[in-house]
Amino acid sequence: QVQLQESGPDLVKPSQTLSLTCTISGGRGTVNYYFWNWVRQFPGKEPEWIGHTTYSGATEYSPSLKSRTTISRDTAKYRFTLHLSDVTREDTAVYYCAAGLMGMKEWGQGTQVAVSS
Asked: Which residues contact residue 58 at a Cβ distance below 8 angstroms, ignoring those fewer than 6 apart?
């Protein structure tokens, strides 16, 4: 059974970099073929895809966030990390990691991140 767990700060100051890590447990081998995604959701809105990486290190980002986003991975620890730079209050959201081959099959529980001074 695949489980994902987000971790990181729940408060980030404006202009700083938001960094969140997703740890994958279970399903070793299977998840190697998955896309490892970051998604965020604003209140009352549909989830917004931020980007993904793969076990091999390929990455793809949302065009609207590409200039501020980096997703890295540590295959030895089955972790992947989102770095979103130069954040503003508009980046306040619930952030999820999700993994899957076709679509996002497995989701973390999400973590609320607020951007505030």
From this structure: none
